[in-house]
Amino acid sequence: MPKTRQPALPLGGLEVITLRRGAWLPDGYHLTPHRHTHGQLVYAAAGALATTTERGTWIAPANRVTWTPPGFDHSHRFYGRADVRVVAVPVRMCGELWGHPGVFAVSHLLREAILTLTGKPETRSGAHERLLSVMIDELTETVEQPLHLPEPHDDRLRAVTDLLHADPGRTATLAELGRAVGASERTLSRLFHTELGMSFHRWRTILRIHHALQHLTNGVSVTATAIACGWSNSSSLIEAFTDVIGQTPGRYQADHRKPCPSCHRARPEGCFNSPGDRRFPSASPAARA
């Protein structure tokens, strides 16, 4: 585990993890696979993050939060300069949330609760636990977002998804990919539905959206992102992105560039003027692997 990760801090009887409160992680920073006995909510107040488990990968821009229940091996990778907030949910409270990993929309109330819980010391006994209860109430009213990219177990299907992971912009049809891996289009289409619960087209679209978020978070133009991720033009990217994310790529980038509410510096340059905040050192090669 990278040394920049701080241990859990007991705050008012509630275990809360922060990654250097208010500090920013560099683009590409990677936390290797690990597990917790508690549940975990991870939120990038700026930037984006991907959480990966054996069930696939969930990506979360700044208007989403990822949830990992206790006992799941998982890793995180961060994109752009990411202001990362991590909240541990005690086991006794996890039953109110989901028994599987997921990504969920962040309301204004939930965002402010996360920022307060991870950014301010507890001044009244039990305040943090009461705030966590509010967060859980808010989350239970939230619909799971379609940003999960499941991964297959069948060798033939995995061979196809490996080709697309290596080149998300690849425009080959399912029949062409099938010929490359020695499987029929019909068989692969069936496997996409039975193993992954979605069509080939939908799976590839979610994969491309994951990569588009990474490009857009790092300031790549909408047109260049569309070309890099396999869309024929920017209009096609805008349509797919809006359908999945709920806002246009341009709006997503504009929101990402808004000033930080705590220090008013433009993202993604970051804010380091809060008491006790420090820049993270450059991630080590192992951390960025």
How would you sum up this structure, described in words?
There is one protein chain. This protein has 289 residues and is α+β, with helices and mostly antiparallel strands. It folds into two domains: 9-148, Sandwich (Jelly Rolls); 151-253, Homeodomain-like (Arc Repressor Mutant, subunit A). It has helices at residues 91-94, 108-119, 127-140, 155-166, 174-181, 185-196, 200-217, 222-229, 234-245, 249-256, and strands spanning 9-11, 14-18, 30-34, 39-53, 56-60, 64-68, 74-89, 102-105, 148-149. Strands 1, 2, 3, 4, 5, 6, 7, 8 and 9 form a nine-stranded antiparallel β-sheet that branches. A hairpin with a 2-residue loop joins strand 1 (9-11) and strand 2. Helix 2 packs antiparallel against helix 3 and helix 7 (200-217) packs across helix 9 (234-245). The chain is globular. The model is unreliable at 1-22 and 261-289 (pLDDT under 50). This is HTH-type transcriptional regulator RipA. GO terms for molecular function: DNA-binding transcription factor activity; sequence-specific DNA binding. InterPro entries: Homeodomain-like_sf, HTH_AraC, RmlC-like_jellyroll, RmlC_Cupin_sf.
